[in-house]
Q: What sequence folds into this?
């Protein structure tokens, strides 16, 4: 009697498995995936820390196959990984940290639309192949090539659900403003990825406010917490305004830059409200890139220490909701760049 | 739509990845042989009806559940947990129908206690909310695949969810009983330590709450309570569940200071909340909502507790050793958490 | 459920009950219209405004508005039956 290996079991029992089934990577499937790029399969993108296994275009294609990607998605996976290997992103640190953040990819430009990346209803959740599989391809590489395995190289206490997969686009169809990429100086038809290390989204409901002041007060409130690293170190943050909330702001005469500025100004806590719990330490406050007075109880500590750290996007379906993703403290800075099709 | 043809055979992966009810990840191809194999994980009759999944109300038999479990990546021994969970979730008070359609983004988080959870390797330590643990990942996913396929809770179709949530991919874990100073959540509710129990609550993804400073419980719990309240959290405005998962390190800090699980539970309920004055400034505050929860909307100094009923706060000990607690906010749609034993 | 492809396709889609639509009246003049208030704040204001407009513009004779118990739970069968007894046309809005 021949013993046929169950291909699913074979991969599900690997130490680097994320716990879910993969598409079996056959030579034929990898070859098919590689039709999604013009790049040389042997080209080295970099080494994934901390284990530092090399990622070639072919290696990336194999992981993209396993994740469930279509060949058309491959350029995004390649572009995303390359950005994430930049030193300032500090992939090495996040692979080992006790915290639970994931490299969220925000993809802008015509290619994102073409491949069906989703930025509307349910964009942070299951049901959208491009979102799900592109983000997953990155995670599989972080685990297999990088060795970022919980309880081994990774000291992550809880991880976070966003670590299964973290990729989306904006809801430009219903956004009153330009995209995140355009706001950073890219052209509207540039294909751009912004990557930022964040926790899973906190959902922020307001079906009451009809003008921006009150709306942004509520949003800003969810951008702070005694226990959030954003208050105690320089840290990125993503604010994904639902199109309905964005429209309230636009109708109130606010541009994207206005909202960005107001959130940076409003989100924060007084020293008095930070001392009583969470991660407040005087030395941390003194180490901020901005000058604060930790001995003045009335001093206002902003959640956003540098305006570049706030990634404001318009995403999600129509409804009175904004999603906020807090950041990390480990010296990671968001990265962004164009990717090759 | 037909799957892509590879060497004249349909690519089975493409076949399922293109389904409207796909979660976006590959599934284990359900063959008769695999179904027979996974059904060895239960002694129940495959034709036994478990219930109908709202809102599409397609029926789930033991066999149907088994098929979705196998697609998700489950081993046969995980099947009893999946069967037990879906049964609990169909309880009327859980309001699965509502959450399938809601604009919110909550998921049915399963906390599994008892010896069987340990036996099958359900994980409650480092990284328990994230990828890398097959039992956690596939059991939670089996539930989601049923909610999508049988229930029709598809974003933008049956579901009006604005953002959904990453927790909707999969939501299942165990406690870290090895390093917990207290009894489990199940035991605290009156179950026996040897009982196999599932607790299910509709919650958002966890908010991580860091504290490497506090050396005594008062300050620690103040910080955790702070993460339990927000102007824009539904928990402030209606009765809603909340899950607080303390790391073993933070639970031990409390226990060493003489606090029982019940003490911590009580202190969090007393501390977490906001004043009326504060709540009016933003978020979902409405007079009518306040009146419904017996809050005087004209008393700006009145304290509005996050937890309106002590049964709504689910306190567990989970995660690896470290200075962190995870707080999962709840839903506003009238779901009540459920719990019960399951048959192995 | 087993396809020719050698595996099972558990996709739900077959065997759905067919729901026949009740015939719609060609005009609303003199009719009794029913609506369900889902209890969301200010939903009652919207429904009353619609009710007034239906009477003014379409000659609707009477509008009955009933409240269900909770916005996230279905209306009780008894409530639906009650409305069905009293009205010619019912409007059930789906939304947030």
A:
């Amino acid at each position: 009697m021949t013993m046929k290996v169950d291909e699913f079991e074979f991969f599900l029992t690997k130490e680097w498995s994320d716990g879910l089934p993969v598409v079996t990577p056959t030579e034929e499937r990898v070859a098919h995936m590689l039709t999604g790029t013009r790049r040389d399969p042997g080209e080295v993108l970099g080494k994934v820390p901390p284990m530092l296994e090399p990622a070639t275009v072919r290696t990336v294609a194999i992981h993209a196959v396993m994740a469930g990607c279509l060949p058309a998605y491959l350029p995004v996976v390649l572009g995303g990984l390359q950005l994430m290997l930049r030193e300032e992103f500090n992939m090495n640190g996040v692979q080992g940290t006790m915290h639970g953040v994931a490299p969220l990819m925000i993809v802008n430009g015509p290619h994102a639309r073409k491949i069906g990346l989703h930025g509307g209803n349910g964009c942070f959740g299951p049901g959208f192949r491009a979102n799900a599989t592109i983000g997953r391809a990155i995670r599989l590489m972080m685990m297999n090539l990088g060795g970022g395995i919980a309880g081994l190289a990774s000291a992550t206490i809880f991880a976070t659900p966003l670590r299964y997969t973290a990729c989306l686009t904006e809801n430009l169809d219903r956004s009153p403003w330009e995209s995140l990429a355009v706001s950073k100086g890219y052209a509207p038809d540039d294909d751009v990825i912004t990557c930022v290390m964040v926790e899973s989204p906190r959902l922020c409901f307001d079906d009451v406010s009809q003008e921006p002041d009150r709306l942004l007060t509520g949003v800003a409130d969810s951008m702070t917490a005694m226990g959030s690293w954003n208050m105690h170190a320089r840290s990125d943050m993503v604010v994904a305004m639902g199109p309905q909330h964005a429209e309230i702001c636009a109708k109130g005469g606010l541009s994207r830059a206005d909202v960005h500025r107001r959130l940076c100004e409003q989100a924060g806590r007084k020293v008095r409200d930070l001392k009583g719990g969470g991660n407040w330490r005087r030395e941390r406050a003194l180490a901020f890139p901005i000058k604060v007075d930790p001995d003045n109880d009335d001093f206002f500590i902003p959640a956003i220490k540098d305006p570049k750290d706030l990634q404001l996007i318009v995403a999600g379906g129509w409804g009175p909701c904004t999603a906020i993703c807090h950041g990390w403290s480990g010296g990671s800075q968001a990265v962004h760049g164009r990717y090759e099709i | 739509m037909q799957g892509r043809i590879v060497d004249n055979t349909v690519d089975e992966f493409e076949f399922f990845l293109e389904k409207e009810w796909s979660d976006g990840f590959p599934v284990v191809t359900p063959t008769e042989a695999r179904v027979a194999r996974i059904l060895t994980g239960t002694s129940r009759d495959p034709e036994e009806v478990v219930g109908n999944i709202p809102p599409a109300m397609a029926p789930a038999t033991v066999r149907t559940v088994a098929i979705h479990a196998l697609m998700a990546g489950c081993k046969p021994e995980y099947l009893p947990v999946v069967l037990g969970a879906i049964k609990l979730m169909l309880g009327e008070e859980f309001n699965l129908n509502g959450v399938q359609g809601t604009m919110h983004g909550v998921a049915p988080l399963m906390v599994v206690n008892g010896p069987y959870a340990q036996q099958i390797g359900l994980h409650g330590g480092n990284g328990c909310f994230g990828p890398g643990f097959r039992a956690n990942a596939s059991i939670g996913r089996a539930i989601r695949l049923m909610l999508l396929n049988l229930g029709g809770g598809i974003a933008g179709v049956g579901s009006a969810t604005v953002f959904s949530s990453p927790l909707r991919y999969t939501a299942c874990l165990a406690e870290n009983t090895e390093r917990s100073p207290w009894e489990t959540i199940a035991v605290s509710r009156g179950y026996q330590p040897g009982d196999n129990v599932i607790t299910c609550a509709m919650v958002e993804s966890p908010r991580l709450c860091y504290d490497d400073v506090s050396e005594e419980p008062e300050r620690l719990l103040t910080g955790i309570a702070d993460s339990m309240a927000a102007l824009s959290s539904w928990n402030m405005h209606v009765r809603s569940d909340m899950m607080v998962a303390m790391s073993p390190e933070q639970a031990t800090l409390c226990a060493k200071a003489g606090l029982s699980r019940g003490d911590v539970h009580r202190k969090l309920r007393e501390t977490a909340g906001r004043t009326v004055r504060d709540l009016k400034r933003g978020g979902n505050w409405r007079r009518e909502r306040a009146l419904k929860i017996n809050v005087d909307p004209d008393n700006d100094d009145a304290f509005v507790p996050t937890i309106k009923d002590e049964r709504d706060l689910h306190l567990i000990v989970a995660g690896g050793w470290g200075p962190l607690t995870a707080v999962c906010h709840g839903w506003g749609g009238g779901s009540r958490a459920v719990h019960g034993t399951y048959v192995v | 459920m087993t396809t020719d492809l050698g595996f099972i396709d558990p996709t739900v889609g077959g065997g759905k009950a067919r729901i026949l639509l009740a015939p719609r009246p060609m005009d609303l003049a003199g009719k009794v219209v029913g609506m369900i208030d889902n209890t969301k704040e200010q939903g009652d204001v919207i429904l009353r405004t619609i009710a007034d407009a239906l009477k003014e513009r379409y000659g609707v004779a009477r509008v009955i508005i009933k409240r269900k118990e909770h916005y996230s739970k279905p209306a009780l069968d008894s409530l639906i039956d009650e409305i069905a007894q009293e009205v010619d046309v019912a409007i059930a809005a789906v939304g947030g």
Notes: Residues 304 and 311 of chain B are 17 Å apart (CA to CA). Confidence is low (pLDDT under 50) at residues 1-8 of chain B. The interface with chain C takes residues 3, 9-10, 12, 15, 19, 21, 29-32, 35, 56, 58, 64, 67-68, 71, 95, 97-99, 101-103, 149-150, 152, 160, 286, 288-289, 332-335 of chain B (CB under 8 Å).
